[in-house]
Structures are given as structure tokens and as C-alpha cells.
Automatic annotation (TrEMBL):
Protein's recorded name: tRNA pseudouridine(55) synthase
All copies of domain Pseudouridine synthase II N-terminal, residue ranges: 1-62
Enzyme Commission numbers on file: 5.4.99.25
Reactions listed under catalytic activity: uridine in 5S rRNA = pseudouridine in 5S rRNA
Record key words, sorted: Isomerase, tRNA processing
Domain of life of the organism encoding this protein: Eukaryota
GO molecular function: RNA binding; tRNA pseudouridine(55) synthase activity
Alphabetical list of PANTHER family matching this protein: PSEUDOURIDYLATE SYNTHASE TRUB1, TRNA-PSEUDOURIDINE SYNTHASE
Upper taxonomic lineage: Eukaryota, Metazoa, Chordata, Craniata, Vertebrata
Xref: SUPFAM superfamilies: Pseudouridine synthase
Length: 142
């Protein structure tokens, strides 16, 4: 069971908790909810710093894990660096495009490969845009 952090993307009445907090509104912690941790290992320990490798399911907050570790040690703990190395079928090693290959052709090739990893119906969905007035980009072949 894990209590999500107040500064998170979780919503109350359609607004992110983090947005409400930044406006100075009172926000109550969400109740603890079940999460999955498939593996957790200590990779490096050089006091006061340590490196963890965590394989977890969706909805898991590494910030909360680190905070809980600090509480168990009767101190505080925070994250200095966080790298997501895998999300669904995508891995950082296999699917991240290195900066020296940031050309429009390489980006298009990379997107084609990544879209092929989704089931047929999902690979043709339109991307959601963030700003009003922008048009959606279709992944379908034209």
C-alpha cells in the first residue's frame, strides 16, 4: 500500500493536486492504495547517497518510496536523480534516440518503430495536443 504524494498528477474535481497546492489551496492526502513492486535492489551506497533499481507497476511513486525509507531511518530522504528506464514495451536503451541522431528522418523512423509495438487499433489513434487551437497529428499512413 502506498500513499501518493500531494505534488502529483492525481486530480480533485478535475484539477491536478500539484496545481491546487501551487495556488495555496488545502489539499488532503489521497488514501493509501495498492501498488506493485516486482523488484527492488540497492545498486550503490555511499552515505548519505544511495542508488536503487525499482521495477514497479503503474501508479507507483518512487518519491513516496524514498520518503518512506527516510521515515523508517528516522530522518528525511529525497530524490537527487530519477531515470525511467522502461515504460510498457519501451526501454531507454532500445528506444531512446541519441542526440546525434536528432534529425527529422531519424525521429520519423523511431516513431514508426515505436508505434509498431502497439496493438493495431492503438497505433492509429491520434495524439492528444496540449494547447488549445492546435490540430492533432495522425499516426495513420497517408
Amino acid at each position: 500500500m502506498q500513499v501518493p504524494p500531494l505534488y502529483s498528477a492525481l486530480k480533485r474535481d478535475g484539477e491536478r493536486l500539484s496545481t491546487l497546492m501551487k495556488r495555496g489551496e488545502a489539499v488532503e492526502a489521497k488514501p493509501a492504495r495498492p501498488v506493485r513492486v516486482y523488484s527492488l535492489s540497492l545498486r550503490q551506497f555511499q552515505p548519505p547517497l544511495f542508488t536503487l533499481d525499482v521495477e514497479c507497476g503503474g501508479g507507483f511513486y518512487v518519491r513516496s518510496l524514498v520518503s518512506d525509507i527516510g521515515k523508517e531511518l528516522s530522518t528525511c530522504a529525497s530524490i537527487q536523480e530519477l531515470t525511467r528506464t522502461k515504460h510498457g514495451p519501451f526501454t531507454l536503451e532500445e528506444h531512446a534516440l541519441h542526440e546525434d541522431r536528432w534529425t527529422i528522418d531519424e525521429i520519423a523512423r523511431s516513431l514508426e518503430h515505436c508505434m509498431s509495438l502497439f496493438p493495431g487499433e492503438q497505433s492509429h489513434k491520434k495524439f492528444k495536443t496540449e494547447l488549445p487551437g492546435e490540430t492533432a497529428v495522425s499516426c495513420e499512413d497517408k
